[in-house]
Amino acid sequence: MLRFAYWTLRLGSRIRQHSDPDNGYSVRSAYHLLTFQDSVSLHAANGLIWHPQVPMKVSILAWRLLRDRLPTKANLVTRGILSPEAHFCVSGCGAVESAQHLFLSCSTFGPLWHMVSSWIGSPLVDSHTIPDHFAQFTLSGGGSRGCRSFMQLIWLVSVWVVWNERNSRCFSGSTNSLQHMLDKIKNYSYRPSEAEDSSTSEAKCFNSEEDSISEQIQAIVKNLKLPDHSQGMTA
Predict the structure, then answer these.
(1) pLDDT at 6
(2) Cα–Cα distance between 235 and 233 in angstroms, integer?
(3) For residues 27, 67, 120 and 162, what is the CA-based torsion angle, rounded to 10 degrees?
(4) What are the DSSP calls for 56-105, one per residue?
């Protein structure tokens, strides 16, 4: 509990340090930091992980992901917790399970981003690093504040779904299809629930007390006109 509070305070402190004193934090300013100032890219990521409709534990997960501090098999091997022979991706694809592989390039989980982009009508982001993917995905829906907030929310929910699916496969042996994972992204709510036993999962999916994510997403998609990138996209 004390460790969690410590990291929460550090996250908030770094966001304040790099916010505009007059206008506050903006996704565009964070993206600028990620793109043009390598030395403070992690500070910019601290800003990007925060969203008013995202539970704290999802932001903490994203914070750890951007710093490669999740207990992926590659990291567990590095720390001497797993043997080198046990570093393969939980999906069974045969690759080493690093964060970059698991969330971006895995032949099993990677196609989920294409499904998400097709669902919301945004261009597919082609980035090989997680911070860049986050920043590019956030701005891929257009320049309006509403679009950026919407895309930011979807990215955070997506990585939450992937990580929980990874844990389910690793610890309980249950497997969901990509379509089912996409359905979770559409339907997850905003109120956090009690976390599962840390020995079996990082956390549960969060349950709804008020509006579901699908209802809010449907309203946003209906009212926002995302730019048409189809002509500039490759097959």
Answers:
(1) 35
(2) 7
(3) -150
(4) HHHHHHHHHHHTT-S--HHHHHHTTSS-GGG-B-TTSSSSB--HHIIIII
* 78, pLDDT greater than 60: yes
34 lies in which domain range?
Answer: 26-224
Residue 5 lies in a domain: no
Higher pLDDT: 132 or 103? It is 103
CB 163 within 8 A of CB 185: no
Residue 164: Cβ-neighbour burial (10 angstroms; 0-12, 13-18, 19+) = buried
Any domain includes 8: no
The answer to whether residue 21 is domain-embedded is no
pLDDT (0 to 100) of residue 44: 58
Is 231 within a domain? no
123: DSSP letter = P
Instruction: Please state the domain count of the chain.
Output: 1
Average pLDDT over the chain, rounded to an integer: 71
Residue 32 makes CB contacts below 8 A (sequence gap 6+) with 44
The span from the CA of 230 to the CA of 235, in Å, is: 10
SS3 state of residue 205: coil
